[in-house]
Amino acid sequence: MSAPFFLGKVIDTIYTSASDTEAMTASLSSLCILLTGVFLCGGAANAARVYLMQLSGQQIVRNLRASVFSSVLRQEVAFFDKNRTGELINRLSADTAVVGRSITDNLSDGLRAVAQAAAGVSMMFYISPSLASFVLLIVPPMAAVAVVYGRYLRSISKRTQDALAQATQLAEERISNIRTVRAFGKELSEVDTYTQKADHVLSLAKLEALMRAGFFGLTGVSGNLMILAVLYKGGLLMASQHMTIGELSSFLMYTFWVGISIAGLSSFYSELMKGFGAGARLWELLDRKPEFPLNEGRVLPAEQLKGQLQFRDVSFAYPARREAPIFQNLNLLVPAGTIMAVVGPSGSGKSSLVSLLLRLYDPDAGVISIDGYEIKDLNPYWLRSHIGTVSQEPVLFSCSIRDNIAYGAEDPEAVTMEDVYRAARVANAFDFVQAFPKGFDTVVGEKGVLLSGGQKQRIAIARALLKVNTDSFILFFFTAHALDAENEFLVQEALERLMEGRTVVIIAHRLSTIKNADSVAVIDRRHVAECGPPTELLGNREGLFRKLMEKQAFLQEEQQRALQ
Ligand SMILES: Nc1ncnc2c1ncn2[C@@H]1O[C@H](COP(=O)(O)OP(=O)(O)OP(=O)(O)O)[C@@H](O)[C@H]1O
């Protein structure tokens, strides 16, 4: 019986011509040429494969990141009350990288291992079906072990990524609030806390490494068992003249080959399971449908807009704290083009009122409407694009003052320097910005930390102005908790220019800011306790508004007395 494959044939020739030096040399050199050819082609193909896989891997990670980021930004605000920034950032950077690796480099290695194993197994069957069936008996129990192991590895990988996300969350929060950490002298204890979290990640990673090592050991042992089986059964077949030495040696070679491919496959499998583990949260994020749409719903023609705001029997509790209702059957009407100041004790729900109007949350019951249209039916994106908000703690981005102001416009790229100057002038920000050495190119630091509170607020007004200038018909303004007299005057002046001809809701933390208001709504105990023109409310001696005013006046008197 002649050897069924070239390599087997060569080995047979070497073996039978052992006494003939010339024939043996010829056979050996043809073997060398064959192997050199195979290795060269294999090397080139491998280099091309690695390059292409790296490229497509980066592409896949990029697409994955873009999709996850897009999905995260579309979520409703309540989602961000429950999910923390650092954790989401970790998903976006670390989890996507793990998943990317497991489905590109690894997938290509895996496919190569599958192809190699399939070719090797076919050759084994080709040479001797009976020996191949005997040797491959080891595969079913190995596959069963692999399934159980894969599940376990998946769950460990998920736990590792979760632990890493928690560590990143802590780091993100502490680094971004370093001033508070430093003020309380907590650097060392924070380092300890972070180290503990990193230790937790390490212990999970160790467990994972142990599991992988165990699995590799197992595949190694099964490879050796296959070789033993070949030697034993193949020896018997050779003794009974059912196999030549060439066939047995090439069979043995293919067994090695299959053994190595199985080791490659197990590595692929464990990486894939790791990817699945890390991917679980990513798929959750990708699949999550926002509670309400970002850019769907009714869009009203500009001429229909007047800006009347109305709350009818509104009840609301934050999704993150259902047990603590904020409003119960709240009713409030803000006529179009008027200024309404909302006052009330701290935590009474003044800011929540604005969050509902911006449709950051939906009420649990009741109706909120603008010009008679329920805001649930309106396109939230369109709605917000018509509302200017100057918030209580204006958050700026870590770019230049110019870019921060231009951010307010629909297309910041199209904003000219003249537009920025004009907005800054109206917002009383122009002079102080020009006084900076780099003027409007001054970078404001993360969240605007390089500016004072009053400066930040005036830049935020300029930013709102660029938005308001275009087509906002409603304006929400949160007065700052504390501004010095000069800043307060400048902000107030800027604000008055902004208010002209619009419906304005002022969330008044300082009662001095309500002097321009047409009416005042006092929020207390989950509803509007009083509502009317300020002078009328002041006339009610027993009224809440009067009491709030007296309290503040009293505090001011105390301060003045303390200064004397
Ligand atoms: N995202 C949130 N999730 C859960 N509860 C919240 C959330 N935001 C605010 N709250 C709670 O809702 C209540 C009303 O808060 P809100 O910020 O509306 O009060 P406020 O009247 O504007 O207070 P202040 O004058 O102190 O700024 C508070 O008890 C607050 O703890």
Automatic annotation (TrEMBL):
Main location per the UniProt record: membrane
Cell compartments where the protein resides: Membrane
GO molecular function, one term: ATP hydrolysis activity
Keywords: ATP-binding, Glycoprotein, Membrane, Mitochondrion, Mitochondrion inner membrane, Nucleotide-binding, Repeat, Transit peptide, Translocase, Transmembrane, Transmembrane helix, Transport
Annotated ABC transmembrane type-1 domain residues: 1-274
Superkingdom of the organism of origin: Eukaryota
Biological processes per GO annotation: oligopeptide export from mitochondrion
Membrane-protein topology: Multi-pass membrane protein
Transmembrane segments: 28-52, 134-152, 213-232, 252-272
Residue ranges constituting the ABC transporter domain according to the UniProt record: 309-550
GO cellular component, one term: mitochondrial inner membrane
InterPro entries (alphabetical): AAA+_ATPase (IPR003593), ABC1_TM_dom (IPR011527), ABC1_TM_sf (IPR036640), ABC_transporter-like_ATP-bd (IPR003439), ABC_transporter-like_CS (IPR017871), P-loop_NTPase (IPR027417), Type_1_exporter (IPR039421)
Record-stated family: Belongs to the ABC transporter superfamily. ABCB family. Multidrug resistance exporter (TC 3.A.1.201) subfamily.
Record protein name field: ATP-binding cassette, sub-family B (MDR/TAP), member 10
Organism the protein comes from: Kryptolebias marmoratus (Mangrove killifish)
